[in-house]
Write a structure and sequence with these properties.
Blueprint: E1 6-9, H1 17-25, E2 32-35, H2 56-64, E3 68-74, H3 82-89, H4 99-103, E4 109-116, H5 127-135, E5 139-147, H6 154-164
Parallel strand pairs: 1-2, 1-3, 3-4, 4-5
């Protein structure tokens, strides 16, 4: 039995277009949500000294208990949000001193949900998501993009929903 989806939301606003799009995609599906705006993740530290309030380990536990991880981020200056980037920087922990945990990500799947004002997703935007997934032996399944100046891409969302269900 497949686990329900894990959706990591990296928007800097509570009522963001990214969150609206995510809720449109997953309407009625009851995924597990982690809103990076509401958790504490410290920046990567080469010495691996993190304060007790750091919640990165809790998020990794959620990664391990789900088959598919959906990264949802707005496009900020042609890149992922800083909240999402901090999360991605911490993947370094999983290939250094937490290798045993990092290896458990093998076989998981990832998918990108992006929202921005440009008519198309900026060139190269997917690279960190795809390459990080490949590096950690996870299967990158692709992306869906919503331009805020247009209606939701209903046919693409329907196709994505069919692949999730």
């Amino acid at each position: 039995m497949r686990s329900k989806p894990l959706v990591i939301i990296g928007s800097a606003r509570n009522e963001s277009d990214t969150k609206k799009f995510v809720h449109f995609i997953f309407d009625g599906m009851n995924p597990t949500y982690i809103d990076l705006l509401n958790v504490t993740i410290n920046g990567y530290d080469y010495c691996h000294h993190y304060p007790e309030k750091d919640q990165y380990a809790d998020i990794v536990e959620q990664f391990l208990s789900h088959d598919t991880i959906y990264f949802a981020t707005p496009v900020y200056w042609y890149s992922m949000s800083s909240l999402m980037k901090t999360l991605f920087d911490r993947f370094s922990d999983l290939v250094t001193y937490k290798k045993t945990i990092g290896r458990k990500l093998k076989g998981k799947s990832t998918f990108l949900i992006a929202v921005g004002a440009e008519s198309v997703l900026p060139e190269g935007f997917e690279v960190p998501f795809r390459c990080t997934s490949e590096y950690l032996d996870m299967d990158y399944l692709g992306s869906i993009y919503h331009c805020t100046n247009k209606e939701f891409p209903v046919s693409e969302v329907q196709a994505l929903r069919r692949s999730i269900e």
